[in-house]
From TrEMBL:
Gene3D superfamilies: Laminin. It comes from Dreissena polymorpha. Disulfide bonds join C8-C17, C23-C33, C44-C53, C59-C69, C80-C89, C95-C105. Residues 1-18, 19-54, 55-90, 91-126 form the EGF-like domain. One of its GO terms (cellular component) is plasma membrane. It comes from the Eukaryota. GO terms for biological process: establishment or maintenance of epithelial cell apical/basal polarity; heterophilic cell-cell adhesion via plasma membrane cell adhesion molecules. This is EGF-like domain-containing protein. One of its GO terms (molecular function) is calcium ion binding. PANTHER family: CRUMBS FAMILY MEMBER, DROSOPHILA CRUMBS HOMOLOG. InterPro entries: EGF, EGF-like_Ca-bd_dom, EGF-type_Asp/Asn_hydroxyl_site, Notch_Cell-Fate_Det.
Length: 127
């Protein structure tokens, strides 16, 4: 007889059953478990994150067009870049720079319009 085979207890693995199988308890909820020397690491499926892949990653689809996505418990929030607004930071906020000196700025699809105060005219209500 030239070899042998060990039948390992539940939490052990390897030829001599000397390695701990940290993945034996299947700790990764939505992902693949990778056994390490002193513990395990989860490689999460798409749309999931967290130590055991149990948190939904709402930001994985990059919903924020012009901004940073912040993952939450039940959804996401976009922190928009300057000059953008809307739930997904997809709307340009032309009035953010307050271009109307003496009037009210009205945001449009491709620019802004100033509704000038009395006695003022022009694109930025200065005159």
């Amino acid at each position: 007889m030239t070899g042998y085979t060990c039948v390992c207890d539940q939490l052990y693995t390897g030829q001599n059953c000397s390695e701990v199988d940290y993945c034996a308890s299947t700790p990764c909820v939505h992902g693949r478990c990778v056994n390490g020397i002193t513990g395990y690491t989860c490689v999460c499926d798409p749309l999931y994150n967290g130590q055991i892949c149990s948190d939904v990653d709402y930001c994985s689809t990059t919903p924020c067009v012009h901004g940073k996505c912040v993952n939450g418990k039940t959804g996401y929030t976009c922190v928009c870049d300057q000059l953008y607004t809307g739930q997904n930071c997809s709307e340009a906020e032309y009035c953010a720079s307050t271009p109307c000196v003496h009037g009210r700025c009205v945001n449009g699809m491709t620019g802004y319009t100033c509704v000038c105060d009395q006695l003022y005219t022009g694109q930025t209500a200065r005159n």
